[in-house]
Specification:
Oligomer: homodimer
CATH architecture of chain A: 2-Layer Sandwich
Order of helices and strands of chain A: EHEHE
Radius of gyration of chain A: 16 Å
CATH class of chain A: Alpha Beta
Number of domains of chain A: 1
Largest sheet of chain A: 3 strands, antiparallel
CATH topology of chain A: Mth169, Chain: A
Helix content of chain A: 25-40%
Strand content of chain A: 35-45%
Strand order of the largest sheet of chain A: 2-1-3
Distance between the termini of chain A: 7 Å
Chain lengths: 80, 80
């Protein structure tokens, strides 16, 4: 079963990579760029047939490894 | 105007980071994990009111800086 996890820094946490990309884009002449934030999406293929059980397991994976609970929020989407 | 760019490696290009995460998840006991791929999402705030012009400009930003055209595909979504 396919599962997508969207991971993003909390809005109040600075994103230095996004800030650097915004500056680089402006340096290239794209001066309408106001802000850039860079997030990640983890696409998993999980063996199993029970969407609720898979969602719970991926939630645990996020807490243990896929996201940094101090700085990041995450959302788990199971594609049924 | 908010713009989201989804960047992902082409399916035929290996994703070593995803492979390492899959192995780490299995080592933690999540043995239903088959594959993991890690993509990125760039969230931009662009000054302007013309969605078509903004989409064209962000397309150019992707080709110049936000994506690696050799290895990655990208999709630009303008939130109207």
């Amino acid at each position: 079963m396919k599962v997508t996890v969207h991971v993003q820094r909390r809005p109040d946490i600075a994103d230095p990579q996004g800030t650097a990309v915004a500056r680089a884009l402006r340096d290239l002449g794209h001066d309408t760029v106001e802000t850039v934030r860079i997030n990640r999406t983890v696409e998993l293929e999980i063996r199993g047939t029970d969407p609720a059980a898979i969602e719970a397991e991926v939630q645990t994976m996020c807490e243990r490894l896929l996201a940094n609970p101090v700085m990041e929020d995450f959302e788990v989407v199971v594609h049924r």
